[in-house]
Write a structure and sequence with these properties.
single chain; 8 strands; binds phosphoenolpyruvate; TIM Barrel
């Protein structure tokens, strides 16, 4: 089964609306000849609709950084899947470690969000990863197992056909430290076999597993060369279109 690589940019809480639109248009121009690879950017909720309009018809796809699992209602400050769909959003990042760390996201709320995303036809990018202490205590696989099993509890292979997993060791996010090739290789192989155990061989072989954590133009080629790495989730280095394009075109 061939999996089209996905290079996704998480813009976190950076860029005003006009700044986001400008970077998105610059990136779309730089990506006009890119083939065989999907490119996605996830701006803030405030910019997502304008950014989507500004790159419509280009190679750049749009993601959101979060959603709320209810369809609508008295949930001040939240955004639903329907609202994202109506703004031409295709992907949604769920359970990013910053949401787990600073905003009380749990495997249970992650699971509700994955369900809400799949029901509305948004492609969920489930983020998982161990902290530095958990790695030192050799709990990496146990933690990943729980995040995947609980985050996808009650969902079936059919609902998860557009699932993307993003392995993001917390200690590598925004720190400049990248997991070693062996560490990434071990974890990605483990995750693929876990998907097979929990769901099916087909789901395991079709699901893209991204690596995230200080991906930059200098290390992307080695990371993408790992058999079970199907793309990258990029934070800091995706904010500058000229830098991000060097990641996207790692193979040229
Ligand atoms: C991220 O935000 O998901 C991320 C991996 O950030 P960075 O690339 O800056 O480490």
């Amino acid at each position: 089964m061939s999996r089209i690589p996905l290079i996704a940019g998480n813009w976190k809480m950076y860029k005003t609306g006009p700044e986001a639109v400008k970077t998105a248009i610059d990136l779309a121009n730089l990506c006009s000849k890119v083939q065989g690879i999907e490119v996605m950017i996830a701006p803030t909720f405030l910019s997502v609709q304008h950014v989507a309009e500004s790159v419509k018809g280009t190679n750049v796809k749009i993601g959101a950084q979060n959603l709320y699992f209810e369809k609508q209602g008295a949930f001040t400050g939240e955004i639903s899947g329907d609202m994202l769909k109506a703004a031409d959003v295709e992907y949604v990042i769920i359970g990013h470690s910053e949401r787990r760390q600073f905003f009380g996201e749990t495997d249970e709320s992650v699971c509700k969000k994955i369900k809400a995303a799949t029901q509305i036809g948004l492609k969920p990018i489930l983020c998982i990863g161990e902290s530095e202490t958990q790695r030192e205590e050799e709990k990496t696989f146990e933690i990943l197992d729980k995040q995947v099993s609980d985050g996808l509890k009650g969902l079936g292979s059919d609902e998860l056909k557009n699932l993307v997993l993003a392995y993001e060791p917390v200690w590598a996010i925004g720190t400049g430290k990248t997991a070693s090739i062996d560490q990434v290789d071990d974890v990605h192989q483990y995750l693929r076999s876990l998907l097979e155990k929990l769901f099916s061989k087909d789901l395991a072989s079709q699901t893209r597993i991204l690596y995230g954590g200080s991906v930059k133009p200098e290390n992307v080629k080695d990371l993408m060369g790992i058999k079970d790495v199907d793309g990258a989730l990029v934070g800091g280095a995706s904010l500058d279109a000229n830098k991000f394009i060097n990641i996207i075109t790692y193979n040229t």
